[in-house]
Amino acid sequence: MTATLSVRGLSAGYGGVTVIHDVDLDVDTDAFVAVVGVNGAGKTTTLRAIMGLADIFGGTVELGGESLVGARTSDRVRAGLALCPEGREVFPSLTVEENLLTGAIAGDDWTGRADALGRVYELLPRLGERRSQAAGTMSGGEQQQLALGRALMSGTTVLLVDEASLGLAPVMVDWVFEILGAIHASGTAVMAVEQNIRISAVATQIVVLEQGTVTDRLEADEVGSGLHEAAKAAYFGTGGT
Ligand SMILES: Nc1ncnc2c1ncn2[C@@H]1O[C@H](COP(=O)(O)OP(=O)(O)OP(=O)(O)O)[C@@H](O)[C@H]1O
């Protein structure tokens, strides 16, 4: 299977400080890769580095065989990457539809924007029902769905998701993970960083990140008890005991 997003030897951080070291990651066109790790493992920094939002100290990022080294974040979005950030960052006083439109590519004509809205509403019908509601009046789970929809407005081929489960009640976590599964099933490759092990229900591959380094990888057919060992290791640094 072709790796649509290919990361090799990526080292990145902030200022002069390296946070992630020599990270290799592949996201195939039909993959849902979950990157699991504890607080501070470097999950957010990995996503930010792929988007060109952290300082890059070495390594390469390719999308569809094209190098993104040195590319601006806006060009990475045009190429097909999009980031759904930690904490959702919706605009509370704007409506659902206005929030979604902020995710469209600047300069796209109205037809392009309307098409993108139509695709998002088809995939995430709750957003269509609430299109005129102020985003700040929605539940946390609904706001997470909105943040995901906004990230899909730019013709996204690989969706990067930062801790979609953060701050949600367990029932909402499962709902949001089901939405991620639906996005993946619709043909968008997904790479989601998570602390919540329940992402295993929808992911096809698990990558464990510890102290800025990839320490384990599991394919979907190894998921099950193997996943839980890896997840435990990521949580507790115990090697799965
Ligand atoms: N803007 C920044 N400037 C300096 N250091 C940062 C910055 N953002 C993160 N760091 C540091 O980088 C390290 C990794 O942080 P990162 O947010 O990537 O981890 P994480 O795995 O996403 O953690 P969390 O689950 O808490 O979000 C931490 O030591 C953090 O303090």
CATH class: Alpha Beta
Could you give me the name of the CATH homologous superfamily? P-loop containing nucleotide triphosphate hydrolases
Q: Identify every distinct bound molecule in the structure, by name, code or SMILES.
A: adenosine-5'-triphosphate
Overall structural domain count: 1
Structural class: alpha/beta
What is the spatial order of strands in the main beta sheet? 6-7-8-3-9-10
Percentage of β-strand residues: 25-35%
Q: What is the H/E order?
A: EEEHEEHEHHHHEHEEEH
Q: Please give the count of helices.
A: 8
What fold name goes in the CATH topology slot? Rossmann fold
Molecular shape = globular
Which sheet architecture does the biggest sheet show? 6 strands, mixed
Radius of gyration: 17 Å
- List low-pLDDT spans: 236-241
Secondary structure: number of strands: 10
Mean pLDDT across the residues is 87
Query: What CATH architecture would you give?
Result: 3-Layer(aba) Sandwich
Brief account:
With 241 residues, the protein is α/β, with parallel strands linked by helices. The chain is 34% helix and 28% strand. It has a six-stranded mixed beta sheet with strand order 6-7-8-3-9-10, with helices on both faces.
Architecture overview:
The chain is of the alpha/beta class. The protein has 8 helices and 10 strands. Helix content is 34%, strand content 28%. Strand 7, helix 7 (170-185) and strand 8 (189-194) form a beta-alpha-beta unit. Helix 3 (96-102) packs parallel to helix 6 (140-151) and helix 6 (140-151) packs parallel to helix 7 (170-185). Mean pLDDT is 87; it is low at 236-241. The chain has one domain: Rossmann fold, CATH 3.40.50.300. The protein binds adenosine-5'-triphosphate (ATP). The site of adenosine-5'-triphosphate has 11 residues, from helix 1.
